[in-house]
Amino acid sequence: MVATCLHLGGFICGFIGWIGVIVATSTNDWVVTCGYTITTCRKMDELGSKGLWADCVMATGLYHCKPLVDILILPGYVQACRALMIAASVLGLPAIFLLITVLPCIRMGHEPGAAKYRRSQLGGILIILLAMCGVVATIWFPVCAHRETTIMSFGYSLYTGWIGSALCLFGGCVIVCCSGDAQTFGENRFYYASGSSSPTHAKSAHV
């Protein structure tokens, strides 16, 4: 029962973390840049926001963004971080699907526990790979962006990526390391014996 609860908790953490990675990938508020103080940059309309897909200027009441569409002139770190975040988002699809099929409430015929255990382990490994892609991208991007311009603060997209990657890493490790073994996986259930001549039915359990 404990292994089942841990597996379910790992799945929930991985799913929420994957959503966070997708949000970080699709938004552009990764770092806030400014060549002076924030107050001066606001007055001069030079307070910027930099992300994977656009460079933005946050003027008073307005938000102007310039899409980064010319791949040939983009810095290498931007392209690499794009690839890592896209890979993380895509890896989440098969990982979540595999983990859904091994949840205790899902039954696929008389499938042995060993088969579900293998799918669970594969899903957990994919979640960990997803997390590693997110961790590398969300650390690499601000470090390299700081070499180009002065970073005043981190944006919500970067925080979302960090939190999402951390949740995925935690959830994947729980699934891989704490979900029991192949012999007992998926066998945590209670049932009542039927057809007994005794007036009191015996309760059997697999735990």
From TrEMBL:
InterPro entries cross-referenced by the UniProt entry: Claudin (IPR006187), Claudin11 (IPR003555), Claudin_CS (IPR017974), PMP22/EMP/MP20/Claudin (IPR004031)
Record-level Gene Ontology MF annotations: structural molecule activity
Membrane disposition: Multi-pass membrane protein
PROSITE patterns membership: CLAUDIN
Main location: other
Entry GO CC: bicellular tight junction; plasma membrane
Family as reported in the entry's similarity comment: Belongs to the claudin family.
Name of the protein in its database record: Claudin
